[in-house]
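User: Please predict the structure of the protein below. I'd like the answer in structure-token form so I can feed it into my own downstream comparison script.

Assistant: Understood. Taking the following sequence of 135 residues as input:
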Amino acid sequence: MATKRILVVDNEQYIQEVAKICLETVAGWDVVTASSGKEGIIQAEKYQPDAILLDVMMPDMDGIATFAGLQANPNTKEIPVILLTAKIQAADRRRYAELGIKSAIPGAGVAIAKPFNPLELAGQIAAALGWSLEN
């Protein structure tokens, strides 16, 4: 089976680094990062990841606008997106669900809460997408 590729889009360098190290170490996945929504859309088209972990609160182009951009592009609209956010209230979860964004925590909404447990991140992504952590 081919190695999964994940795109992590977050304006915080620290979050990118922690997610990259954990996903590569725990799951053996290939991780590509982007520091902005615009860069994320470009990286998604270029690398065609198996999934995108997308921060909601970013300057210039937030996660929701980025998601809309990914959905508008025929080359990226089928890539599953999981939000990474500190905003995980019930109203936010409903809004994300209405947009078609994947649930990462069964029964708990459509996003992975920040701050996240780095050792659980791969498992949360795999559970949301129905993946096995076996390579």
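That's the full token string. Residues 13-27 form the longest helix (15 residues).
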